[in-house]
Amino acid sequence: MMTTGAGGDRADARADDRAGGRAQERDHRSAIRGAKAFWIACICAATLASGVAACGLGSFPSTPAETLRALLQAVGFGVGQPVDPALSVVVVDIRLARVVLAWLTGASLAVAGCVFQGVLRNPLADAFTLGVSGGAAFGASVAILSGLAGHAAFNGLGGGAGLLPLCALAGALLALGAVLALGRAGAGMGGMGGAMRRETLVLAGIVVSTFLSALISLLKSLDEESVASIVFWIMGSFQGRGFEHVRLAWSYMAVGLGLVLWRARELDLLALGEGQARLLGLDAGRSRLWLLIGASLLSGAAVAVSGVIGFVGLVVPHLLRLVVGAGHRTLLPASALLGGLLLLWSDVLARSILPGGAELPVGVVTALIGGPFFCLLLGRSGRMNGRGQS
Questions:
Q1: Does residue 1 register a pLDDT over 50?
Q2: Separation between Cα atoms, residue 2 and residue 4, nearest integer Å
Q3: Phi/psi of residue 324, each to 5°?
C-alpha cells in the first residue's frame, strides 16, 4: 500500500507539472499577443498624430491647432473661428493629398516587400528583385520620352492623373508577366513539370531588371532633353501629386492588399519550405502565383504614382520581425502601418529640409535613412546568431 501510495504521489506530481507547464505556456502566449497589440496600437497612434503634424509642416508652416481646425472644417466640423482660405488650400488641397499618398505608397511597398521575402524565402527580396520597379521605370520613361506624359489630350486619363502613372503601372505588370513566363519556361526545361521554383524566379527577375535598365539607359541616350525628367522621376517624389493620384492608386492597392491578407496563412506555410507546405495540403505553385500578383499590384501602383523608392520594402519587414514576430497575419498589417509612417516622414523631410521651397527626391531620403539603419539591423542579427551558435 505504501508503494502504491508513493507511485500515486509521483503521478500526481507529474500531472501538476504538466498543468503548470501548460499554464506557463498560455501565459507566455498571452504576453506575446499583448506585446504585439501594444506595438501595433502605438504605430496606429503615431500614424494619426503624424498625419496631422505632416499637414502643417513645410515651407508654409502652420500651428497644430490651425492644421487640425482646417482639417476638421474640410470634413464639415467647424471648430472655432474660420481658417484663412489660403491656409486651408495649402493644408487640405496640397499637403493632405501628399500625406495620404505617401502613407498609401509606404504601406504598399512595405507589404509588397514582406510578401516577396516570404514567397521567395529571400531576406533581400523587394520590388526590385522581380523587375516590378524596373518595369514601372521603363513605362514612365517611354511616356516621358514620347511626350505622352504631358500631352493635354491625356490629362483626363487615370482620374485626372494623366498618362504617365498608367504607363508606369502597365510597365510594372508587363515586367511581372515576363518574369513569370521566364520562370515557367525555366521550370519546364529543368524537368519540374512547369512548376516554378523560387530560385528560377529570382534569376528571371534579375534578367528582366538588367534588360529594362539597359533599355532605360538607351532611351536616355536617344533624347538628352528628357534625361532630367526621367532621372527625377526614377529617384521618386510626391511633388505635384494630388488626390487624382490617390484615386488612381488606391483601387489597385486595395486589390493587392486584399489578395495578400487573404493568403497570409499560406505565406507562413511557404516559409516552412515547399515540401513541408505540400505535406500540409498547400498548392505551393498556385499560392505563390497569387501572392506575387498581389504584391506586384501593390508595388506597381506605388511606383506608378511616386517613382522608384527603395529601402521601405526592405527595412520595414526586417525591423518588425524583431518586434511582432514572423507570423504574417500580424506582420503584414504591422508592415503597412510602419511603412506608411516611414514614408510619410521621409516626404516631410524631403519638402522641408531645403530652403526656398526646394524639394529633395523622397527616394534619396529613404536611401539615406534606410541604408545605415539596415546595416545596424544586419549587425544586430549577426551578433544574435553568433550568440546562438556559441
A1: no
A2: 5
A3: -110, 0
- Residue 265 CB contacts under 8 Å (≥ 6 apart), including other chains: 328, 329
Give the integer Cα–Cα distance in Å for 278 and 274. 6
- 98-129 confidence digits (pLDDT tens): 899 999 999 999 999 999 988 888 777 888 88
Residues 353-372 have a mean pLDDT of: 83
Q: How far apart are CA 250 and CA 313, in angstroms?
A: 18
> What is the full DSSP assignment across 362-382?
HHHHHHHHHHHHHHHHHHHHH
* Bigger pLDDT: 341 vs 145: 341
Domain presence at residue 390: no
Residue 37 lies in a domain: no
Looking at the predicted structure, is the pLDDT value of residue 4 above 60?
no
Domain count across the chain: 1
For residue 12 the three cell numbers come to 500526481
Whether residue 384 is contained in a domain is answered as no
Nearest to 250 by CA among 345, 134, 165: 165
Q: Rounded to 5, what percent of the chain is helix, strand, coil? A: 80, 0, 20
CA distance 326 to 377: 16
Q: 127 lies in a domain?
A: yes
Helix (H) or strand (E) holding 203: helix 198-222
pTM of this structure: 0.82
Which residue range forms the structural domain that includes residue 294?
42-73+83-359
Q: Which cell is 260 given? A: 495578400
126: domain CATH number is 1.10.3470.10
Q: Please tell me the distance from the alpha carbon of residue 336 to that of residue 111, in angstroms, as a whole number.
A: 6
